[in-house]
Amino acid sequence: MFGVINVNKPQGVTSRDVVNQIQRLVKPLKAGHAGTLDPLATGVLLVCIGDATRLVTLLQERTKTYTAEFTLGQVSDTDDSTGQITQSPQPAILPDVGDITSGLIQLTGVVTQVPPAFSAIHVQGQRAYDLARSGAEFTLAGREVVVYSIELLKWEWPLLQLKITCGSGTYIRSIARDLGRLLGCGALMSQLERTAIGEFVVEQSVPPEALTRTALGGFVIPATQITAPLPRYSCTDQDCRDIVCGRALVIDSVRYVDVTPPLSGTLVALSDEGYEQLYGLAVVTEKGTLQPKNVFLRTAPPSGGAGPS
């Protein structure tokens, strides 16, 4: 139980609900998700198990892909269809493909985005959604996010279907809200499916109801898949003993696998020769050594193969 499960989150449940279901099955091991989905949204929810919860940030940094539906001519306090909806007057001239494309271009790239008022952003130690529900007045600061592309899939007033590829921290609801403002007719997000987080795709996800105590293990993707984008270093038995003690490793270039040489500050996955077991993460130091950062080995054998125990 050292890896990640690609869960297809259904509509109407929270990401925490899914994690709690898995947590009950793997106790006393930990479980945690790598990027929340609103109850309205469906699709890829990555749940890490055991020591893999220490690798969550690596998954959060991966590119996300969504299929979204926006409803034009409406706005809401949550920026989606779950909130208090206000109908906007239908414009005399409806937006056309050119208007929409122009608006989407303005929302693509490195952009400053204001999160929805109903979001998990912390405001003076409280969640924004708690403040919003209590009627408190507050302002959320804009923050820089990356929207790699927005592809127009279908358009017929008032429904707009899009494929959005973006970086971490991007709110699709905010894109809907901001597009509605640019078009002058208002808009909200009415459907959302996360179709991919990096190489983890919805077609290979598993529904929560299939996750039983006996079947769960068959759906766990090894932790080496989480660290696959990183350079890797295959460790000897002596390296494993050093890792367990937190000692830096002298790099043998033959066992360092990457297209570029090890540069100071680079995060490296420590593994066996076949990259079947993840022993830990290390950082390349200015001295050119590998300093263990996260260690998953408990013990290292005096000789022969090594692996977490």
Describe the structure.
The strands form four sheets. Strands 1, 2, 3, 4, 7, 10, 11, 12, 13 and 14 form a ten-stranded mixed beta sheet that branches. Strands 16-20-19-18-15-17 form a six-stranded mixed beta sheet. Strands 5-6 form a two-stranded antiparallel sheet. Residues 304-309 have low confidence and may be disordered. A hairpin with a 2-residue loop joins strand 10 (143-156) and strand 11. With 309 residues, the protein is of the alpha+beta class. The protein has helices at 15-26, 56-60, 97-106, 128-134, 172-183, 223-226, 237-244, and strands at 3-9, 31-33, 42-49, 64-72, 74-76, 85-87, 109-113, 122-123, 126-127, 143-156, 159-166, 187-197, 200-201, 221-222, 232-234, 249-250, 256-257, 267-271, 278-284, 289-295. Helix content is 19%, strand content 34%. The chain contains seven helices and 20 strands. The longest helix is centred in the N-terminal third of the chain and has 12 residues, at 15-26. It has three domains: 3-62 and 199-224, 2-Layer Sandwich (Pseudouridine synthase), CATH 3.30.2350.10; 64-197, Pseudouridine synthase; 230-295, Archaeosine Trna-guanine Transglycosylase, Chain: A, domain 4.
